[in-house]
Amino acid sequence: MPGIHHDWGVKPYAEIHALQERLVGLRAEGKVPNLLLTGEHPAVITLGRKTPKGEEVAGSIPVVVVERGGEATYHGLGQVVAYPIVHLTEARRNLHAFQRDLEEIGLRTLADFGLTGERVEAFTGVWCRGKKVMSLGIAVRRWVTWHGLALNVSNDLAPFRAFHPCGLDGDLMTSLTELSGRTIDVAEACARIVAHASALLPGGPFLPGALPLES
Q1: Domains of the chain: which residue ranges?
Q2: How far apart are CA 22 and CA 31, in angstroms?
Q3: pLDDT at 2
Q4: What are the φ/ψ torsions at residue 113 (nearest 5 degrees)?
Q5: How far does CA 85 lie from the centroid of its chain?
Q6: 190 noted as active-site residue
Q7: Low-confidence ranges of the chain (pLDDT < 50)
């Protein structure tokens, strides 16, 4: 059975976080198929489980503590976020391999735009020309994944300098637009992410559809 791709457009982080929690429960109970949620969030900084205690965030951007792995990161308009809510079968219950699959989605997406991405030892995510362009952090509940990846497409990079994204200097963050020297359309980048997720992740292909939510 094909999975469902749902793009929420632009919605606050808290709203989509609550939606993920609901869908994770439904997926674990077998009431919905595998899902891929995509979209953009208004400006927010999220602190993953590995964020050092005492991490300071300058400025007025809202900060939310979340249950995903990884450290702090920023979400904002112009950045594509993708949350796979998929059940990992016994044959695929390897979280390290799942994270490598998410990185591969980023690497293939960069290649679609003529860019050569790479992995960097000791760090997750995707890098290009010595800078990080895609971050990832996942959580798993009853072997159903949630949270996911965030690809900088055309977003303002200045907010990253208000803290240590993924434990790094904020100046190390980049975007597809900065790397390519031309403005990259968010919808175009999102379409490539969905295509590669369909080829790589459990439950693919992910076809456009409404979320099968219970009333």
Answers
A1: 3-201
A2: 11
A3: 86
A4: -105, 20
A5: 12
A6: no
A7: 215
Q: Which own/partner contact pairs does 183-189 have at CB distance under 8 Å and 24+ positions apart?
A: 183/154, 184/113, 184/153, 184/154, 185/153, 185/154, 186/40, 186/78, 186/80, 186/153, 186/154, 189/80, 189/109, 189/113, 189/151, 189/153
pTM metric for this prediction = 0.95
pLDDT for 214 equals 61
- Angle between helix 186-200 and 95-112 (nearest 10): 140
Q: What is the CA radius of gyration of the chain?
A: 16
Catalytic one among 35, 128, 157, 166?
Answer: 166
Q: Apex CA 184: angle with CA 136 and CA 187, to 5°? A: 70
Pairing of strands 63-65, 144-152: unpaired
- What 3-state class would DSSP assign to 178? helix
Q: Which of 10, 3, 41, 35 is nearest to 146 (CA)?
A: 35
Contact 81, 8 (CB under 8 A): no
- Pairing state between β 3-10 and 206-208: parallel
Q: Could you tell me the two tokens for 89?
A: 């079968």
Distance from chain centroid for Cα 2? 21
CA 73 to CA 67: how far, in whole Å? Answer: 13
Q: What pLDDT score was predicted for residue 215? A: 43
* Answer CATH for 3-201 from 3.40.50.300, 2.130.10.10, 3.30.930.10, 3.40.630.30: 3.30.930.10
22's CB contacts (< 8 A; 6+ apart) are 213
